[in-house]
Design brief:
659 residues, alpha/beta, Arc Repressor Mutant, subunit A, Rossmann fold, Helicase, Ruva Protein, domain 3, 3-stranded mixed β-sheet, elongated, ATP-binding protein, ATP binding, ATP-binding, ATPase_AAA_core, ATP hydrolysis activity
Amino acid sequence: MAEISFGFIDRRVMAAVERVAGSDPDPGDPFRGLYISDEVALRLTQGDSVSDADARLNHVVAQLGLDLLEAAVLAVCAATELNPRYGRLYAYLQDDVTRKLPSPRLVGQLLEGEGLSPADVMGAFDTTGRLRHLGALKLLGDAQTPLAERPVKVADRLAAVLLGGRMDESPSPTRLRMVNHPVHDPGRTQAVETMAALLARPSTLPVVLAGPDADTLIAKAYGRQLVAVHVKDLSDRDVMAEAALVSALEDRPVIFEGLEDIEPADRGRLLRVIETRPERTILAAPTRTAALALGERTVLLVEAPSPSFAERTQAWADLTGTAETADVAAKFRLSMTQIVEASEVARLSATARGADTPEPADLDLGARQASSSRLGELAARLPPGFKWEDLVVPERQKELLQSISAYLRHRDRVLSDWGYEKTVARTQGLKVLFAGESGTGKTMAAQVMAAELGLEIFRVDLATTVSKYIGETEKNLDRIFGAAEGSNAILFFDEADALFGKRSEVGDSHDRYANIEVAYLLQKMEGYPGAVILATNFRRNIDDAFVRRLDFVIDFPFPEPEDRKRIWERVLPDEAPRADDVDLDFLSEKFKLSGGAIRNCSLAAAFQAADDDTGAISMRHLVRAVAQEYGKQGRLTLEADFERFHDVIRVGGGRSNGH
């Protein structure tokens, strides 16, 4: 292909200026060009050339695939970006000092000749031509300006290239996202090879890669960097033109993302836009479900699984320099992109402590921070601050809880490495029911497991999630599980009996719809890869058919006297001053309180003691706190219990002689 040079443009502009100056009926008119006289214009044609940009110009021409006419048009329009004298000359030629950008008409006048008419040149500004389709040129002005007289502006990104600037920095905000080569090999070799094979074969069918790290997997399949556009911008001409320009200049294939954001009502319009595209449409979707937005169109779908346990373990080790990474890889099912970010957090955390390599706590911190989640908007985060020794439950219940913890810690090793996922048909998430009266330790047990595993835990109140309006409950649940996607958090649904009551007999349409709501939550629970814990105060209200679908059911019994004493011992801190008359045996045997109630009593007694001159927690404070707790629960203490401490409570003396 013949090359174009700015010297050619110089000669054309010089000839045009000479024609205008030579044909001026009044060359002495001081208003010619407002302030640019013929002499000044002629002198400007002898100014510095921009021929040093010829190589960059021809590189751009080659990248954009322009023909010689399109290249000449681009050179005329781009000259003003390279040297301001061209703007003054174009203003002179258009007899208007404010018109420093060329118009299509002026470009036609400058390039006509040698078999080219101005109309031929005008054809290069066609919206379907490469210059406009690629976003290299844009017509400015409003509808009041004649089309051929509108200013022509070179794209900022293209002007930066011609000026020798960086191609990946646009002076204005952009809605494009650059997908660079993955920092770490994303794995999933089979999915990448399948995708590469589909991309190598011509087809008009859209190609969708669905799964975590979909964009980086496509980049690996192409072997190139990408430019990503949101599918909602498919019909935005400016965004698509900029994407085409970036793609051409930087050899980045264009992919589309955001299928998960498309509402059902918008799917038809999206499909119509895809149908009209002359180019093949390549899409990245986070899940197969997101790809359903194209359900009415035949697509080539490639499903990529999450990174395997082995791939995650190796990535953590490579990126952190830590050998023991199996634990964090098992507990947190992160995408490869998330692991890259989490590893950076872990390294920075270690550096802040003065350590050379991250420790397990640093890895857990990085994993938690990299876990993408909007759960905080819809659920309350529970602080993990409890340990196994803080939990007072029977040994059988503690063993079951530790089994759940072991499952979450070792599931990938057992299911993937040991091959159980091939022989045991089950999801890799966990569905658990905690049943027991209020205050028996259900919430604390969930917090203990989260603390041991280094996971976050969020509490969702099902009583506020369930709606009397048909369809609203499912929408609420969908928002919660959508926000939890990729969080690796434990979901703790409190007040589960608000939804999971016994409904085996359908009495009316509301009961029938309630069954649908239950089935929908079960479906969401089974699709969630982490642990979902449902808590209920009334085990008998839960439908047996639903219970059979759960992985674990743990009953939290009301604490016996010996358990209550252990709880009293734990909730009275060693640092708290305690009077000699405190009798934990009596409190445990006489007052039937749950663990939560005992904690309330301990705290209430402490505040009473702090307000007294004695400055120590005594039996008087504790019994009074118990009476208050009983009153809250609508219960009465036995008169005999208070008679024993009559003198303590009423008079404030020492221990009763009747003890």
